[in-house]
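Hey Z.,

So I finally got round to the zinc ion thing we talked about over coffee. Here's the setup:
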Amino acid sequence: MPMSTDLYEILGVSKSASQDEIRKAYLKLAHKYHPDKTGGDKEAEKKLKEINAAYDILKNPEKRKQYDQFGSTDGQPFSGFGQGFGGDFGESPFGDLFDMLFGQGGRQGARSANRPQPGHDLEYELSVTLEEVARGCKKTISFSRPETCGACGGSGAAKGSSPETCPQCRGAGEVRMAHGVFSMSQTCPRCRGAGRIITRPCQNCNGSGQVRTKRELSIDIPAGVDSGNRLRIAGEGEAGRMGGARGDLYIRIRVLRHDFFERMGLNLVCEAPITISQAALGATIRVPTINGMADLKIPAGAQTGTQLRLRGHGLPDMRGYRQGDQLVVIQVETPQKLSRRQRELLEEFESLSNNRTYPKCDQFKNKIKATGHA
Ligand SMILES: [Zn+2]
Ligand SMILES: [Zn+2]
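And the result:
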């Protein structure tokens, strides 16, 4: 007796039957096939189990809904149902099947291949300049991603044909292979688990159901991003299959090296060399900032390593609450390749210097003496 795989058919009701109608149909059948009536007929016992199992799903509106939704894709996974029947089944044949179809995790097989599958996420590395980080920017990126093939609508089958149930696994995506006394489930080699095979592949996508398509996208990069940040652009990843949702696109930020600035959190740090006279006398020098050139006042007596701050010329934090500064680290440049005249002037300058001109040099000499190293 061929086993019906349609739960409604098993109970002899229509798909639109009310819960009450389903219940009545079940009770009638359960009565009819009850062992008391059939005298322990094996075939009737099998039938009763089938009825019980079908009712078990359809009496529960939630399970029924899942079955309806799932069955409506093409009902194919249920054709793999026959496989589970090795003859001696214990409890409900549908119990396991139900778990297999709707349960969490479990084995991979036809059900995953025929179900909506979300598209993969994509990652795109985007280089930005520090100036762009300071102000935020709009970038147009171009990339290619798999899209549902327009010629076959994603089925992979050529126009006028459609994927067929795999004859080897009868749509289950798995086959049972005998290993000595054991028999084990394996992914079907013919359809590689899909449960379906394409006899005439679509020319446009070579049967894959997807084609790589170029996509241009304009994206807003917020001010304050840093290398390694990932911006998520929802729904711009690869197309899903069987009506599955698109993946997301992740923009991985790479901040390019700047000619002058090192980034230290929100602050930008640069070095500025100055002459010994600028250092001694004080001066105003021009320095680059992320916002263009600016004046920087050097105080008299500035030393190498002195840090001067240009407020607000750093980077904003991403939420826009704070703004960093620019830190300028002074490097006093010792003059080289002196002319005769320059040498004379410096020698004269030196002869006029004392411990107040060079307090550090003086302290150093004194310390040597005091500690007995002289
Ligand atoms: Zn195609
Ligand atoms: Zn197969």
